[in-house]
Amino acid sequence: MAEKRIVRAAAVQIAPDLDDGAKTLERVLNALNEATDKGAEFVVFPETFVPWYPYFSFVAPPVLTGAEHLRLYEHAVVVPGPVTEAVASVARRRGVVVVLGVNERDHGSLYNAQLIFDADGSLKLKRRKITPTYHERMIWGQGDGSGLKAVDTAVGRVGALACWEHYNPLARYALMADHEEIHAAQFPGSMVGQIFADQMEVTIRHHALESGCFVVNATGWLTEEQIARIAPNEAMQKALRGGCNTAIVTPEGAHLVPPLKEGEGILVADMDMALVLKRKRMMDSVGHYARPELLSLKIDDRPQPPLRREFSLEPLSHGSVSDEADDEARLDPSDGAAHQRVAVLRGQARRA
């Protein structure tokens, strides 16, 4: 039962390596080992941390971003692949549930993806940000509804959203209705300034209260050297400072530890899962406090591939018995289902 569990969570705020995605991955693995050395059972990293968040797209005009965009393709993550195998290995060896943000490459497109690894190393969920925000639309494609769900893990039911997806109340409600107990929130950090951190504070605490779940939020960090490299124009550098609010929030909307707003670090705190039931006893927004006969959510949670293959048959002959025999001969003899479909279609044709 959730009310009898204590889960030690960690939220990681670190800087990527802007030159080499493999070195950013090394930073992830080192942080995982450090967090688990402190007893962490659940660890969250920032939005698209591997290989790095596309900060360049926020401060440079699109016509000047081609080279950096292509470089992001070069270092992006294929799922499954070497990056997922490396993270899964540490998750399995250290017995930790991991939520990692990556730039996922799927052939000719990039996506903002959130990966949830269970403590046995299995990849329980790969979801894509459903709507990239503002400048991000030049970088990533759109996700679909198949990832708007919570998954069972060694620490409980976990859901995840990225950045301004938290401003989409129906996306949040989809996870709430799927009874998430722990919510992983991921933001880029080092952007926009203090107002971004302030808005994030309101957003994650409100979701904790409304969902009746814990929220573990991780934001990224840029060093001054990295800021100067991304934005050589000093006037634009202020757009890459502030906006950090790594935090762990209870279902009652309280911080378990002071949030981390400057520099690198790992927040660690014990989450008493009894607080989930304590909150929901008073206000279960998808249970006794819901009015589904008045207000409800309709969701299409099917994957939306660009190609769907469907069974088809050539038009059946209305001719001789020998023509029907030819139709039958074209089918795989071992495919009993196909022969049955032919019989049904032939019967319909004769009745017509």
Automatic annotation (TrEMBL):
PROSITE patterns according to UniProt: CN_HYDROLASE (PS50263), NITRIL_CHT_2 (PS00921), PIPLC_X_DOMAIN (PS50007)
Residues of the CN hydrolase domain = 7-273
Outline the segment boundaries, as ranges, of region: Disordered.
306-352
Q: Name one Pfam family in it.
A: CN_hydrolase
Q: Which InterPro entries match?
A: C-N_Hydrolase, C-N_Hydrolase_sf, Nitrilase, Nitrilase/CN_hydratase_CS, Nitrilases_CHs
Q: Which family does it belong to?
A: Belongs to the carbon-nitrogen hydrolase superfamily. Nitrilase family.
Q: What is this protein called?
A: Nit6803 family nitriliase
Q: Which organism is it from?
A: Chelatococcus sambhunathii
Q: What is the lineage of its organism?
A: Bacteria, Pseudomonadati, Pseudomonadota, Alphaproteobacteria, Hyphomicrobiales
